[in-house]
Design brief:
The complex is a heterodimer of chains A (73) and B (144).
Chain A lengths: L1 E5 L8 E3 L4 H8 L6 H6 L1 E4 L2 E3 L11 E5 L6
Parallel strand pairs in A: 1-5
Antiparallel strand pairs in A: 1-2, 3-4, 3-5
Chain B lengths: L2 E4 L4 H12 L6 E8 L8 E6 L1 H9 L7 E13 L3 E9 L2 H18 L2 E7 L2 E4 L17
Parallel strand pairs in B: 1-4
Antiparallel strand pairs in B: 2-5, 3-4, 3-6, 4-5, 6-7
Classes of the chains: A alpha+beta (73), B alpha+beta (144).
């Protein structure tokens, strides 16, 4: 299982999914209409490291976080 | 580690503590930056969410500078107008490199620190979308 967390203003509870890669996860997340606008501008981190392409394998226990645009200060 | 406060940061107390900690370390300049919540558009204040694991990871590269030391504090939760939500101080031998570091550090902070800001209007949190910046790789999970 992969744990997916949605940070900041997305306001969605964490979920656990079966996905072997980021490509698979992309398909799963896009089934949720309310998430689509966030996916357009959110970055993705696997085990707290930002990834910039979809060629990433996921293994059991990995944590994925979805990070919407940031604004500190 | 970034120092984290619930609500407004105690500015003078924190700066004094940093000053005492660093004043005998050979730095000739301490440049503080105090980020004060402005009363723009009638807001009551701002509110913040942080993602600490990646915030601390981001800050690490600013903690290993050879010729400068940077301290930083940030709030989570509600911070009212006139209070401070972001505080940092740059210590360097001379002021010039200190001002340079301060500018670079705050720019990087604004673009990359995993923090989300909300306006507080009538007690409600409204995500400050227009002021937010996309992180690297943003949009890779989108079908668009």
């Amino acid at each position: 299982m992969i744990k997916v967390e949605f940070l900041g203003p997305i306001g969605k509870e964490p979920m656990e999914v079966e996905a072997g890669s980021l490509k698979e996860l992309k398909e799963i997340l896009n089934k949720d209409e309310s998430l689509k606008p966030w996916l357009e501008n959110s970055a993705v981190a696997v085990n707290d490291k930002i990834v910039q392409n979809l060629d990433v394998e996921l293994k059991n226990g990995d944590r994925v976080v979805i990070l919407p645009p940031v604004c500190g200060g | 580690m970034v120092e984290i406060f619930k609500g407004g940061i105690p500015v003078i107390e924190t700066l004094e503590r940093w000053y005492e900690e660093c004043k005998l370390e050979g730095y000739g300049a301490m440049i503080p930056f105090i980020g004060i919540v402005r009363p723009d558009n009638g807001i009551e204040g701002l509110s913040f969410d942080l993602y600490l694991p990646m915030l601390n990871e981001w800050f690490k590269k600013w903690q290993n500078l050879k010729e400068a030391r940077i301290m930083m504090a940030h709030s989570f939760g509600d911070v009212m107008v006139g209070e401070t939500s972001f505080l940092c101080a740059v210590f360097t031998k001379h002021r010039r490199e200190g001002f340079k570091y301060l500018e670079e550090f705050v720019e990087d902070f604004k673009a990359n620190a995993p923090i989300w800001k909300y306006d507080l209007i009538n007690g409600k949190r409204i995500f400050a979308k227009d002021r937010a910046k996309k992180l690297p790789g943003a949009g890779i999970l989108s079908e668009k």
